[in-house]
Structures are given as C-alpha cells and as structure tokens.
Design a protein that fits this description.
7-stranded parallel β-sheet, 13 strands, globular, 289 residues, single chain, 11 helices, Rossmann fold, alpha/beta, two-stranded parallel ribbon
Length: 289
C-alpha cells in the first residue's frame, strides 16, 4: 500500500517515518514553521509546506493519511484550533495519527501501566497532552475518522543519545532511588507508525498504543552502559536532591513507571528492532562507524 502522508510538525520521529515510507513509493508532505527549514525537507524527499501561514485544506485534500506531531500549547492543540473545520471535512482520510506521551499516565512509583490504565497526569505537560488526545478523539469521532494515538516513551536515536556527553565528560548520572523510565528508539517509532497505517482503527474510533521497548530502566544504568561501550569510566553519580536541574529536567523525575507494550505487538504485529537500550545504543554506535 502507498499513499500520501501529510505530516504536521515534521520533526524527529516523523522524519524517521518518512525515511521508511518514501522508498516504498509514498509521497510525504511535511509542515515546518520556518521557510529556511523547507530546503532541508526537500533534500530529504519531503514536499515542504510552511504552516502556520498556508491553509491546510489543499494538502488535506491530497492526503490519504495524516500524522500530527505538534505538541499542545498554552491554549490547547494548535492544529485543532486553526484547522478543525478543514479536518472535519477530510472524511476521506484512511488514517489519522497523533503523537502523545506516556506522561498522560502520571506517577505509578515504578509500577506497570498499560493502555487500560486510567490516565492521571501529574505535570502540566501531561495534562495538556491528555486534553489534546481527548480533543482529537472527539473531532475524529464526529468526522468518522480512524484515530491512532501513540503514547511515546523517552525517545532516543541518532543525534539523541548519551554518547556525546559521555565522551566529553559532561554526563552526570542523576540517581533517584526507585526511578525508572521507559524508552523507545526512533526507528521503532517509525515501524510502529507504519504498521498502524496498514491496520487503522475503525472509522470514528480512537485506539491508544504505548510505544516503548521491553526494558524500563534507571537512567544511570543507561549512561553506565554507554560508557562501557565507549571503553570509558561511568559518569559520576549525583543524588537527585543535589542535582542542579532545570525545572523542565526536574519534572521528568516527578513520575516513575514501567510501561507495557504488548498492544503494539499483538494488534500491529510489531517486532521491535531494539527491544532494550543495550541493543539501541549498540546500533547507534555501529552507525557512527
């Protein structure tokens, strides 16, 4: 199957998806807020579209599939605020995808969550994401569109890994007893999205998928393994209470949970390329040459 994907906020994860789809014959239209970024998208084989600033209706009319990676702002989801009418008129879309976060589940003191766990976000970002999920679900239900919501764990991959900081000695292992995070390699995000496009939800229905690997782990374990791969000593450990973290960084440590991913395997037939951080980090290092 091929088609045309309209990718709103064509960033890190969406670019990985495009790299998967374009060789298969897909056409990808990617939005960017900056004119200067359009040339980069074109060089990657993506048709650039500056948005906001250009009406989406013509691109929506050409698209068979729609993915939104744009995060909510202070006033809610910017796509829905500006383009709800055009989206309601796009009943021909075969699939709508929305990138969310496992932060909607809130804190579970290291316990397990799955898609049946009631969302209970404890951070402002998590609450905004849950509100956006609900708004997308309501619009798609009214328009008869199939919506797949992807709750992404911590994303890593080429250009987003620990190696640079471990090499230059700036990495610190922040230790908070009992703290665990789930993660996902960007290439596995891409294959989950592609698998969902082949198996969309029923029209008017919304289905949530946790997108994470099989091995939630403390952050200091990941840094220590990266150092081992580089043949370097592990970064120094710093107690969370003593760490000089930004409010944004500190907020990530406000929640601890282990996220289950059985639904992407059972419902979408996904076999993770990188089922744990050890596999993912090794692949990243190999790709560096």
């Amino acid at each position: 199957m091929t088609g045309t994907l309209l990718s709103l906020g064509h960033g890190y994860s969406a670019r990985a998806l495009a790299r998967l789809l374009i060789p298969q014959g897909w056409h990808v239209i990617g939005t960017t807020r900056r004119e200067e970024a359009a040339a980069r998208l074109a060089a990657e084989g993506v048709e650039p579209l500056v948005w906001p600033g250009t009406p989406l209706a013509p691109a929506l009319g050409r698209a068979s599939h729609l993915l939104s990676s744009i995060p909510p702002g202070e006033d809610g989801d910017p796509v829905l605020a500006a383009e709800a009418e055009a989206l309601r008129a796009a009943g021909h879309l075969a699939w709508v995808g929305y990138l969310s976060t496992t932060g909607v589940y809130g804190d579970h003191a290291g316990g397990w969550v799955d898609e049946s766990t009631p969302p209970a976000p404890s951070t402002r970002r998590g609450r905004a994401r849950l509100k956006a999920e609900t708004a997308w679900a309501e619009l798609c239900a009214a328009a008869g569109l199939p919506l797949a919501i992807f709750r992404l764990a911590g994303i890593y991959g080429p250009g987003r890994g620990p190696f640079e900081k471990v090499r230059d000695g700036s990495a610190r292992a922040i230790v908070k007893p009992g703290q665990v995070f789930s993660r996902i390699h960007v290439d596995d995000i891409a294959q989950v999205l592609a698998a969902s496009m082949m198996r969309p939800p029923a029209r008017g229905q919304a289905v949530a998928y946790n997108v994470c690997d099989d091995d939630p782990a403390p952050p200091q374990d990941v840094l220590a393994h990266a150092a081992r791969l580089l043949g370097l000593p592990p970064p120094p450990e710093v107690a969370f209470e003593a760490a000089d973290l930004s409010p944004m960084a500190r907020s990530f440590y406000a929640e601890s949970k282990r996220v289950r991913n059985e639904r992407i395997k059972r419902a979408l037939g996904v076999h993770l390329r990188h089922p744990d951080y050890r596999s993912g980090l090794a692949a990243m290092l190999a790709a560096e040459g």
